[in-house]
Write the structure tokens for this entry.
Amino acid sequence: MFLRKLGIGAALAALMAFVAAFAAHPAIAQPKEWGLGFQPPASPVMDQIQSFHNLLLWIIIATCLFVLALLVWIVIRYRASANPVPSKVHHNTLLEVAWTLIPVIILVFIAVPSFRLLYFQETLPTPDVQIKAVGKQWFWSYEYPGSAAGFTFDSLMLSDEDAAKAGKPRLLGVDNPIYVPVNKVIEVETTAADVIHSFALPQMGVKMDGVPGRLNKTWFKATRTGVFYGQCSELCGSRHAFMPIELHVVTDAEYAAWLAKSKAEFAAIDNGATRVASK
Ligand SMILES: [Cu+2]
């Protein structure tokens, strides 16, 4: 009895430690060991993706439990020893209508929030900032277009030693991160120079293929400041796993400072010449 109590106590303590670990890091911006579920969302789209995921999870759990219960019931109730003479009955109109209609109703119930989310993701609001991400084997090039601040730069993964020195996570930290202002609509144009890549930032709910010769568009609005990591999510060759994305979400003032610094550092090679500058 005492041991049992101790076991429950230990389990409770472990659970509380687990919850506390989560609570202590409400804005973990990268994958972590023993992580379960999504990283904490940081954009309205990801918020909705997560609630839709949670809704689906309950539907899936209920469906699995129902099917499991049916299986267990049939295996026990109709086993050979308990039911030596099997029934030869087949076709039951009511049952057949039910097992067709009920799944249809479940699917329609899922379709409504699913389409609503799809429209929300696919309808681009008027952007405050535009970024172009060009996938290359195996790094990202970014363009910040516009006649006032047009510039472009490459962003490569840091080596293990450099990442450790910079205090960045291994395989995720890059030499030149991208910066965006918080609470602003960021439009991301994606394309690629060689093979298909995919620009993915889990906490922003962004995953968009970069296809050579094509320009895809997606958007996000970061709801809090911080550093967020993503990775190329389309198998693009031997170093596919080593072209991470490092995003810094900062305040307007910090963004303006970074923009001025980067313009000087990376030189204005775009300068509005390759595209119509936004007014
Ligand atoms: Cu890639």
In short: The two ends are 74 Å apart (CA to CA). DSSP finds five helices and ten strands in the chain. The longest helix spans residues 44-77.
